[in-house]
Amino acid sequence: MNMQLNEPIYNLEVEQQVLGLLIKDPTHSNSRETLDSLDVNDFYTRSHRGIFKTIKLMSEAKKEISLSLIEDSMETIGFDYGGFIYLAELMRGAIGIANMGAYATLVKKCARSRDLVSVLQNANGMIEQKTEVTEVIEHLDNELKNISLHSSGKDLRHIRDLEGDFLDELDKRAARGGLIAGLSTGIDELDQKVNGIGDECLVVIAGSPSMGKTLFCQTIATSVAIDQKKNVMFFSMEMSENQVFERFVSGVGNVAPDKLKSARLDNEDFGRITDAVVELRASGLYITDEPKQSVGQIRAKVRRHKIKHPDLSAIFIDYLGLMKLGKADRHDIAIGNITRDLKELAKEMKVPVFLCVQSKRPQSVKDKPNMSSLKDSSCIEADADLIMFVHRQEIVEPETSLKGVTELIIAKDRHNDGNGTIYLEKCNGKFLALSMEAVARIQHDEESKSAPVKRGFN
């Protein structure tokens, strides 16, 4: 096997063994497993790719596989693959069907090594052409991820092997004494409904403009980074770092945003601002306002950050509509690629990812946001574990009885069935849960509005 970087990496003898055994004993379980595990492009030579593709197509079509029938099927191929004589030599030289798995693994290993060399050579070419370093890094990150996906991965486990992990987790839950299992949002009613945010969750925070998506994310980020003293990454593609900092100061210091804007502050306000700055300085909150970031750029930043800060507990991205889309045939496919990659990032890092998403405005004042309100909803809905709409009725209906109230509508909860509505109020740069009395009054008013009007005499 030639391992020089300027020449292809391959092992013709092993490829010949695999093809010979497939021709010699195509119905053996090892042969069937090899047909499933290997790809046509895992073979180096054009002739070997053609032979393997033919055998695989015959197997998928439930056709009989033999030396003469393979030759007949290969006649349609417009290049010289060696003919009947080469096929016969492959079959005659094949020995040891028990070794088929090892042969297939080596073929795949060589293919991935070739892929890696190709990626590195392409990256070197980009550097020689003076391509932006960030673009080269993103290209490398995406291509290396594709190579990783083509690897075989881990074997399946029998369900009995999961018993110990389940019982250990059950013991942990019992030891918590009924406390939530996932990350706390700082909003008690929400935590109870969804049992906290799971480590590998993609959480979509949706809403039409001016509903409070960013503020809601900042409320959770403040709870995690300051109250819980955990590490948080906040990607802001809409507001500058200074604007984000000011909004965090408002929420943490309980100072009205308009006071900060006008700087009409008294001594009490200055004291609160000072305390807020001290708390933010000691927090685990990290912010970037770089615009139009791609998933690859975000993933690279997260990986580097996680190495420096293993206690990373939450990632916030504000927002999907301002992210850089990858190449795709359609817009919805490009959006689907982003949400799928962010879900994979949450699983890889074992950290929840909160993604702000713009939704359509309600068609009428009576409409509440739902799944169909999401733009490109099918891909977002499929990938998200938790979807919550931030909705202020007073935006669409100025005379509503819900003035000053923000509804948090849980439209999807894959793991806990926590669907429902939670009522919040904005208070100096953050959201707070409404009191039980206020919620009861709102629910009574809503039920009264929807109740049928009785007509006639009593």
Task: Please describe what this structure looks like.
The protein has 458 residues and is α/β, with parallel strands linked by helices. The protein has 18 helices and 9 strands. Strands 3-2-4-5-1-6-7-8-9 form a 9-stranded mixed sheet, with helices on both faces. α4 runs antiparallel to α5 and α10 packs across α11. The protein is elongated, with a radius of gyration of 29 Å. The model has no long low-confidence stretch (mean pLDDT 85).
Which helices and strands appear, and what pairs or packs with what?
Blueprint lengths: L11 H13 L4 H9 L8 H15 L6 H8 L8 H11 L6 H29 L4 H18 L12 H13 L12 H7 L7 E6 L5 H15 L3 E6 L4 H13 L3 H6 L4 H15 L2 E5 L6 H14 L3 E7 L12 H19 L3 E6 L18 H7 L2 E6 L1 H4 L8 E9 L6 E7 L4 E3 L2 H15 L8
Parallel strand pairs: 1-5, 1-6, 2-3, 2-4, 4-5
Antiparallel strand pairs: 6-7, 7-8, 8-9
Helix pairs in contact: 1-3, 1-5, 1-6, 4-5, 6-7, 7-14, 10-11, 11-13, 14-15, 15-16
Task: For the structure shown, list the relevant keywords.
alpha/beta; 18 helices; 458 residues
Strand content: 5-15%
Classification by helices and strands: alpha/beta
Q: Using DSSP, what is the number of strands?
A: 9
Q: Which descriptor suits the 3D outline?
A: elongated
How many individual helices?
Answer: 18
Note the run of SSEs as H and E. HHHHHHHHHEHEHHHEHEHEHEHEEEH
Radius of gyration, in Å, reads: 29 Å
Mean pLDDT: 85
pLDDT below 50 for ≥5 consecutive residues: which ranges?
A: none
Portion of residues within helices? 40-55%
What is this structure, in a nutshell?
The protein is of the alpha/beta class and 458 residues long.
